[in-house]
Fold:
Amino acid sequence: MDRRSFLKKASLVSGAAAASTLAAPAYAEGKRTLKLVTTWPKNFPGLGTGAQRMADRITAMTDGQLTVKLYAAGELVPPFESFDAVSTGTADMYHGAEYYWQGKHKAFNFFTAVPMGLTANELDAWINNAGGQELWDELSGKFNIKPFMAGNTGVQMGGWFNKEINSLEDLKGLKMRMPGLGGETLRRLGASAVALPGGEIFPSLQSGAIDATEWVGPWNDLAFGFYKITKFYYYPGFHEPGAGLAAGMNLDVYNGLSKAHQAVVQNACMAENNFMFSEFNAKNGAALETLLNKHKVNLKQFPDDVFDAIGKKAEEVVAEVAEVDELSKRIYDSYIKARKDIGDWGRISEQTYTKSRDRVLG
Structure:
């Protein structure tokens, strides 16, 4: 082989090797596994499966550079310790409901649901386009967490009761599972409200530790089997008119991601937020039919005077959050403004249309 041919071939080989060295390790070194803890039972319909879909999207969209491993409630940490686990770095992400963290700061309630608050569509509008996300970032940032909307159940049911609710007197002394500010509202009306993670509700209802419970809506309530214990199923849920579910990522972990991977996390959460809401709307109707026709559940609407009294008391409870600190006041003011501005449009648009459609079509 002459000298010129040798040098040419050597140059090609070394160039290819260099390209390989530059490309492959850069991809491989970027791989990491993120620990996702949840407040939901493993594979629970809608909530647990939604968290898993979010995790799978992140893994797929990064081609495995970020692999998200899900730990259901109790597998790595107890469900209500998910927030602390992510805040301190024991875990990298959580999927849960922000009002579970009201012991950290009462304003977290606004980012799941507050009584007489925003519907799912209204909540998305506030978070994405009316200042909600920026306020949420500020609040969660105090705990070293970056938050994202990552699901919504839509309007929830009022709950399962072991007796009929005909007046406010029927609420007095009632032991009911209801977290967040909805629970505080019931306490002000004489009930005894407790917060329980999903997996503890059925045995508590079965043992008589609680007399009533709310959870989500027909699809999830059917899966938990509450109809086996009590048959009085009330609507609507004053406490959660559009319950947003959240993913929180350790802020140091999030800031350490590339811009591309940050965008993946954001978009995976947004995709699940949209998908889960549509899934609940698609499944609740058939589940309600099963509860009514197969399991003979007694579906009842809260009497107007009971609902009105609950709503008025709820407004007092929600307004008190604004007094916690300056950030709470800004969150409250922004939320209430969104409820009015977005709600005014909703009454003219969607609400009027659906009422008119039902009148025409029955």
